[in-house]
Amino acid sequence: MKMIIMAGGAGTRLWPLSRTYFPKQFLTLSGMEKSIFQMTIERCLLMGSIKDIYLVTSKDYLHLIQGQIGDLGLTLPQEQILLEPEAKNTLPAIFYAVQAINKTGGDICAVFASDHVIEQPQVLADTILGASQLASKGFVCFGLKPASPETSFGYIKQGTTVQGGFEVAEFKEKPDYETACRYVKDGYLWNSGMFMFHSKQFTEAVKTYAPEVYKAFQAETVEEKFKNTPSISIDYGLTEKMEKVYGVPMLMNWNDIGNFTTFYDRYQSKQDENGNVNFNDEIMLDSRNNLVYSEGDKAVAMIGVNDLVVIDQKDALLVTHRDQSSKVKDVVDILKQRKDERADLHLTVFKPWGAYTILEDSEYHKVKRLTVYPGQRLSSQMHYYRSEHWIVVKGTADVMLGDKDHIVRTGECIYIKVEEKHRLANPGNEPLEVIEVQTGSYFGEDDIVRFDDDYIR
Amino acid sequence: MKMIIMAGGAGTRLWPLSRTYFPKQFLTLSGMEKSIFQMTIERCLLMGSIKDIYLVTSKDYLHLIQGQIGDLGLTLPQEQILLEPEAKNTLPAIFYAVQAINKTGGDICAVFASDHVIEQPQVLADTILGASQLASKGFVCFGLKPASPETSFGYIKQGTTVQGGFEVAEFKEKPDYETACRYVKDGYLWNSGMFMFHSKQFTEAVKTYAPEVYKAFQAETVEEKFKNTPSISIDYGLTEKMEKVYGVPMLMNWNDIGNFTTFYDRYQSKQDENGNVNFNDEIMLDSRNNLVYSEGDKAVAMIGVNDLVVIDQKDALLVTHRDQSSKVKDVVDILKQRKDERADLHLTVFKPWGAYTILEDSEYHKVKRLTVYPGQRLSSQMHYYRSEHWIVVKGTADVMLGDKDHIVRTGECIYIKVEEKHRLANPGNEPLEVIEVQTGSYFGEDDIVRFDDDYIR
Known about the structure:
Chain A is of the alpha+beta class. In chain A, 23% of the residues lie in helices and 33% in strands.
């Protein structure tokens, strides 16, 4: 069996935790040791091996994916990471992976989102593995027992029982609240967004029910495929149109952390006697049913407030009523209109070679902390408007200045003059940390002249 | 006329804006160019000259006071800055200044708090100057027209009218809410905490009505005076006991910014159409009557919340309902119990030579920005557990290493080894700014061995 993980989603609904270039699947939530994406990978390893995993994502997230897979001690072969040239919703994304799998001869495929939080991974794995027989017969979707009458999900009406599941009588997308209540009462299931099918049969189904997608995907290059295909979800484009779809119930808790309301629900078990959820011993006086999520190095106090979600990051703060958190996307839209970078980036920006964090930024200086992963190096580069001092605070650096190499050890410093060609590398086995102090007249990221780059930027 | 400014108050009620070692009088509020203390000094200059000003304060605030007076381009002679060895409330504080004034022959004195926000300073100055005749006859207090039935203030009942004011019929301390409403209806005035008297008459009054304070203050040293005196306010110790006190109405707006409720009132004129007060274009969706006060370099958004005060600092965040802000002192108490330094200090800590700001602090490194005032220098010192790189980002530094002096210019760096004696000085006319990167095994402020210090610490 092959596993297809869709990891291209750009989440804005958890801003400021998530940003355009750091969607929620890459977040490591408080109390977790791994990111949501990493846990998705580990879940897949309960059902198969890394060589059976196909990732569909955007090139914007490639280095995040490689970094987070690397942190698990794993390597995913380049040909199993499929980069969408543009976002065209789920049907083209899945079909992209299906075509790749067909090239290897075809197989049963299971499709997963990368941003779901699953507390019982073994239940999921057992259900998926148990459904392979049914998936060899036709298209299978997985239904979850509704925890509440959610209006933002799709619902599955169960029909005739078959061996290992049921026939789907009907799909119902995003009902109104009253209808959702009726669905829950009548035993409808949430459509989980997980699917299973044989890749050859899937291809036939696309040909029959989504001929424009099929036609576009006959092109030679992936750029052409995505340029010509309509943007369409698997639900609208395929599942709802197919004559026969099987359903399998999945008996576990599930949370898509779609907004801060469900985010709060996720931490229900962590509530104190006043219904407050907090992680860093925040001070709560006369306050009830709040969630406080801070970076942990800050003194936070709340007095006389109820039902708030407070998300504090070094560069951004959100205070929202718990029931109004769906408006977070409006906040992101306003920031984008203002061309405010904090819609898109954190203070810590991940790069293929590691990450940097801005510690201070003024008109006459800028201070950054650089982290370089073991064995990685930045591009060779120079700047017209700034000189830089690099102080190694952890590990050992290999610094090229002009044509000469210098080893700079912990506690040592090296100076890079204006217009001097330089390159920073980590020759060691542990992350390298460097404090960079820039002085000069301009500190923008566009004052970088690149000569050579390991990551083809 | 002499002016006595009481600047010893340790405000905790505006945490995290104010801290134990940075009380509210030293804050420069949004939209202001000067601190509350500096505006108090400037108000006094409407009534006299700097040589007529006597400051009573704690030694903890001496460098803040000298720095802020220096920023005004003024110098207050050392003998007019009176340092209380310990806090013993207002009567001993004022008597300390009165004794100093008596030594110069005695004079009419006006007493002011350093932490009041006065929007019509000229009205205050005219009222004070107009009251000197009355003050030569006896003790004068100043009454403000109540803006609301406050229960935390004292009230003055007006008696017989006299030339330039009235005789006080009665003082009423902190009434309950119903009584306060009646007082406001019956024309009582708020007791402003400003007083006027002749220093010799004041001394006689202390002898008569507060003999224990008088006796204690016959001691030779200021340490003994403060050690032996009871802790007592001028209201309880003197004003309420005196047979005859004059009152003068002061017809102006006044705000003591005693908590975030009055802090919000202070900015009433800045409210937008939804009653929100904010200073940095914060995003407010479906939110009313909130005050957001951030450091300005952060994206802040509020959704669906009402009547909140949100105070965001780099190291601390307060979210309080506007009517509950009196509990801020409980937050500070909790922090103190936890021995959390953020009760006492900001990330930026003011020193006699300037200030430092912690930019990052980990177990293996620490990054600070140092600001050294023109002509000032730090103590000569050394560290056992850390080496330091100093990168000058603004101005020119004079660095002593061992016995040798080095000039370090903007963009240059100098290295201080473990156990090497060193000293940083600013020989220039503008503030010097240095990024300090510490590496080593321990970064506490107690790993400083001081050899010589300009400020006798």
